[in-house]
Amino acid sequence: MGRTRLGRFAAVAVPATVVSAGLGVAILQGMVGAALSSATAFQVAGSAATGDELELTANNVTAANSEASAGTGTAKKDALVSLQNGAVEDLCLAADTTTPLGVLGIKITSAGSVSLGSGWTDLSADSLGASQATLPTTDIGYSQSDLAHQDNTTSSGYADGGFSLATDVNNSTSGGISLTDLDASVYALTLNGLTLNNLSISPTLGSVEGTC
């Protein structure tokens, strides 16, 4: 399975169908960590997302066809969103890739609450939306060098005095961050762990873009 490193490091991408199928195997075998990445953006959605802390920076990600070609990948703009101790309700992932058969889509769904594991979850987003966002005390215009998680100069998009948004670590509460109707187009998603209920993996001939 392709590995993707974000925030503190540049992202490496592999074809979406390969990674999506690999994720399913990892879950069924009980592996505790998971990473999804793609050279083209894929959809991540849920009826709600919650977390304890949030960091957001303007960043960039390198999308390559394999780890071996990571140094020659294409630079993509992205917003790097990091959520601590996150969970998503009714998680849906949808990705397309071009094959000799034409466009092949794959969708992964899990009903109910999906824990993203303890610690930080990194999402490299081309776009991210929610019908409502509830945040605790939040600093807007925070320096990236002062962030608790995204504070490393080895990130390809790191800027010492660059713009960021961060919830106040001294006023964080369990589940204090809430995003209703989460819908994101992402290049990479790195999780500390994943527990899925009622798992469904559906490959389809034809695009599944925007179907979550």
Total domains, how many? 1
Beta-strand share of residues: over 45%
Enumerate how many helices there are, as a single number. 1
How many angstroms does the end-to-end distance come to?
23 Å
The biggest sheet amounts to: 11 strands, antiparallel
Helix-strand topology string: HEEEEEEEEEEE
Q: Provide mean pLDDT, rounded.
A: 75
Q: Could you name the ranges where pLDDT drops below 50 across 5 or more consecutive residues?
A: 1-32
**What would you call the structural class?**
mainly beta
What is the number of strand segments? 11
Specify the helix fraction band.
Answer: under 10%
- Compute the gyration radius: what is it? 16 Å
Shape: globular
Can you give keywords for this protein?
single chain, 11 strands, 1 helix, disordered N terminus, mainly beta, 212 residues, 11-stranded antiparallel sheet, globular
Describe the structure.
- It contains one helix and eleven strands.
- It is mostly beta strands and 212 residues long.
- The longest helix has 13 residues, at 16-28.
- Mean pLDDT is 75; it is low at 1-32.
Overview in brief:
Helix content is 6%, strand content 51%.
